[in-house]
Amino acid sequence: MDDNGLSDPYIKFKLGSEKYKSKVENKTLNPHWMEQFDLHLYDDQSNILELSVWDKDVGAKDDIMGRAAIDLNELKKEVTHNIEQELEDGAGIICLLLTISGTSGGEAVSDLSNHKVDPNLRRDLIERYSLRGSLKDIKDVGWLQVKVIRAQNLTAADLGGKSDPFCVLELVNTRLQTQTIYKTLNPDWGKVFTFNVKDIHSVLEITVYDEDKHGSPEFLGKIAIPLLNIKNGERKFYSLKDKKLRSRVKGALLLEMEFIFNHIKGAIRTVNPRETKYMEVDQKFKISVSYT
Asked: Around 40, how many Cα atoms within 13 Å sit in the side-chain half-sphere?
């Protein structure tokens, strides 16, 4: 702590061999970092996310302000967790959003090159979400499939005039991610994603980032698609926009989607309280952990 009773705090994150550090917030005991960190979780490494808060001290060694550890094994995958983590010895509380992203439950990721239309699956889905099934599992409202085919003319984020782009798909608190395609402005991802839908009024958000191995990913563009606006089987380019979805930025995403849902369940969920979307909460870290 400085002589004025304040500090210049920052946070260090460690998961396995990966380490990241936030920016420094000067002269405050209530810092708002608002940063995103993407870490990788492997089967043969520790599943403990280590956090440590430090006070930046120019000209001297930084002082430790507090520590904490989060056991990722205790967190459900494909759900964004709104965590208020107490530091050891009552040193404060860290508020963060944490998502372990990959494949689990009703969500799935597959390669488009290996994807084949299964008429039995479609028939089963139509039966599952028909009016006859309206009283079964009221929260299982629908099924969404998103084919992320490719992007074109993205912004160049690297010095060499290229980017290392990847996509993050978010439906309320479910978060899935493509692989990174390196050194290109026209990536071919060729991925198929499926989501369980709990509310027909939800909005699918897809954000394109440039991977940075030495820091936080750089935002390249974003789109938001209300589920009820989806035209099944239509393959089209969607122009990317800025973070607030107000202005166009360079690049477009080629997608094909299909949305099947039960109309009665959809109407019931419309009048019931909706699922809270933690991603909209301000003044939080946003940490995603992709696992293999």
From this structure: 9
The H helix count followed by the E strand count for the chain is 2, 17
Q: How far apart are CA 87 and CA 64, in angstroms?
A: 11
Collect all residues with Cβ–Cβ distance below 8 Å to 1 and sequence separation of at least 6.
Answer: 7, 55, 63
Average pLDDT over residues 156-171: 91
3 three-class SS: coil
Distance CA 105, CA 242 (A): 32
* Alpha-helix residue ranges (DSSP H) falling in 164-279: 263-271
Q: How far is CA 179 from the centre of its chain?
A: 13
* 237, 240, 241, 242: CA torsion to nearest 10: 170
pLDDT score for 132: 81
Give the pairing of strands 48-55 and 63-71: antiparallel
What per-residue confidence (pLDDT) applies to 292?
Answer: 44
Q: What is the residue type of 160?
A: G
Q: Where are the beta strands (DSSP E) in the chain?
A: 9-15, 18-21, 36-41, 48-55, 63-71, 80-86, 93-101, 108-111, 142-152, 165-171, 174-177, 188-197, 203-210, 218-226, 235-241, 248-261, 285-291
Distance separating alpha carbons of residues 273 and 40, to the nearest angstrom: 34
270 Cα distance to chain centroid: 24
Please tell me which residue, 77 or 279, carries the higher pLDDT value.
77
Q: Alpha-carbon distance 239 to 100, whole Å?
A: 28
**Tokens, residue 153:** 């003319």
Q: Which long-range contacts (CB under 8 A, 24 or more apart) does 83-86 make?
A: 85/51
> What is the mean pLDDT of the segment spanning 131-157?
89
Exposed/middle/buried for 283, CB within 10 Å: 0-12, 13-18, 19+? exposed
In the predicted model, what is the mean pLDDT of residues 114-118? Answer: 72
CA distance 106 to 264: 21
